[in-house]
């Protein structure tokens, strides 16, 4: 696109001295350190920094143009609001693409399902997909702006923290295929009407789909009543996936879990059946795999190809049940990207099912639960007490105390420690871990337990050291 075309698409104007014929040949970025040569740098007004201050560095790094909300030195397009302008630019670019757009939402599993679907669909054509969990009003348009005329499938993770969020994204770029995974308890504090409000927000994806006679497809979880209730709300054709056998649903049979926590099953579609063994840790990824399979099936892929692609798929996004095996045979499960009551329960279930010398759970705060937070953290402590754990380390302040106290009150043969932060957790753990130990590390990002993962990944046994907590007699 030219600078003039970008100005027209965004409702902005060229800053004096900007060549209207200047060509932008690469995607957009909001980080001046990560601009692509020939791309656009979007100068956002952030909470802690002003992107306009970094515009010269972005140009020096190769950006062709700056999208700004105030006057800057050329080359730049000035707009009223950079975030809204990015969305408008994404809408313009998408209108010139022939790609099938797939939107994926749900309380849990969006990122993994997106990663699996992208890897399966890559066997059928070029895929552009969301990086990590960049699924909001910034990440959504930035992903669209990475698509090219060669993109056959544009796979977009779509997050919502309130009503109208998904409607806004659908208004920017309307998916042809909409996948709703579940309605859980993530971000419950953002919804005064509880799960009913979450369901209403998630349903905005299916109500925004094209009609069936225009290719619209809603891929829905038949096992979740709040998702199943969305079928009458959409004009699109409904495709279903389930854990339970049904002749017209994509479903799994012969489900099994390996000793290292990976799910195997027989994938069934209305057209056939084929075996799958996932490389992802956690039985709950079965749901994500079924959703990805149903999506691919709805787009015409063969059942055997789908099953082979799922088996060959690898984890792409860090911090989501990511397995790290140290060279001393200590295994870390890094699930510290995010947490909510449902995902905590799933992670503990997986930890319990895995073979290990000792099972250790390091659990931190679940954020954005509002008035439900105290109850949710006490319930988590009770779940931990009933899991087959050897040690529970609760990290944080009042919420960690709730987890630890509930676990103690529930009882069981479980050692329980409460620490203030990732640094204290490392002090407790790094001298006491031994070969064969399995350590789950899970919390919302606010707890910064990814720092603990980094520290423990670099740690090695320290039998000769003195001091620090000792986790067991030997």
UniProtKB/TrEMBL annotation:
Matching Pfam families: Mur_ligase, Mur_ligase_C, Mur_ligase_M
Domain Mur ligase N-terminal catalytic: 29-72
Residue ranges of domain Mur ligase central in the record: 104-296
Predominant location: cytoplasm
Binding sites annotated in the UniProt record for ATP: 106-112
GO annotation, cellular component aspect: cytoplasm
UniProt KW Zinc-finger keyword: no
The entry's keywords: ATP-binding, Cell cycle, Cell division, Cell shape, Cell wall biogenesis/degradation, Cytoplasm, Ligase, Nucleotide-binding, Peptidoglycan synthesis
InterPro entries: Mur-like_cat_sf, Mur_ligase_C, Mur_ligase_C_dom_sf, Mur_ligase_cen, Mur_ligase_N, MurCDEF_CellWall_CoF430Synth, MurE/MurF_N, UDP-N-AcMur_synth
Localization of this protein: Cytoplasm
GO terms (BP aspect): cell division; cell wall organization; peptidoglycan biosynthetic process; regulation of cell shape
GO MF term set: ATP binding; UDP-N-acetylmuramoyl-tripeptide-D-alanyl-D-alanine ligase activity
Pathway: Cell wall biogenesis; peptidoglycan biosynthesis
Catalytic activity of the protein: D-alanyl-D-alanine + UDP-N-acetyl-alpha-D-muramoyl-L-alanyl-gamma-D-glutamyl-meso-2,6-diaminopimelate + ATP = UDP-N-acetyl-alpha-D-muramoyl-L-alanyl-gamma-D-glutamyl-meso-2,6-diaminopimeloyl-D-alanyl-D-alanine + ADP + phosphate + H(+)
Domain spans labelled Mur ligase C-terminal: 319-445
Family note: Belongs to the MurCDEF family. MurF subfamily.
Function: Involved in cell wall formation. Catalyzes the final step in the synthesis of UDP-N-acetylmuramoyl-pentapeptide, the precursor of murein.
NCBIfam families assigned: murF
Name of this protein: UDP-N-acetylmuramoyl-tripeptide--D-alanyl-D-alanine ligase
Record organism: Microlunatus parietis
